[in-house]
Amino acid sequence: MKMEERDRLIREEGIEKGIAVGAQKKLIQIVCVRLQRGDQPEQIADDLGEETALIRRICTAAQTCAPEYDCGKILAQMEA
Questions:
Q1: CB of 11 within 8 A of CB of 44?
Q2: What pLDDT sits at residue 80?
Q3: What are phi and psi of 37, to 5 degrees?
Q4: What is the pTM of this model?
């Protein structure tokens, strides 16, 4: 494998990871807005078409960051 090709693959992997993290943060942000409205995890999951277990994990992590709901902190807590 040439060095240029290796560098290209590394960049592509970085871009894909960045997109995935961005999507996770956006989902967390949406869930936090819904939590502030008083919505329940099951309703949020149903409305968003997401797994209830994932939404519950986000809600549990978000509770420790309330009322600021820092998406970065919530994501870090979920990954821990």
A1: no
A2: 82
A3: -80, -10
A4: 0.86
pLDDT recorded at residue 57 = 96
Residue 75 identity? L
**How many CA atoms does the CB half-sphere of 20 hold within 13 Å?**
6
Residues 6, 70: Cα–Cα separation, whole Å: 35
State which residues form the domain around 31. Answer: 3-79
CA-nearest of 40, 38, 20, 29 to 62 is 29
Please count the residues of the chain.
80
Helices (H), the chain: 3-36, 41-48, 52-63, 71-79
Report whether 63 contacts 76 (CB < 8 A): no
Q: How far is residue 76's CA from residue 17's CA, in Å, rounded to a whole number?
A: 15
pLDDT along the chain (80 residues), means of 10: 91 96 96 96 97 97 90 91
The count of structural domains within the chain is: 1
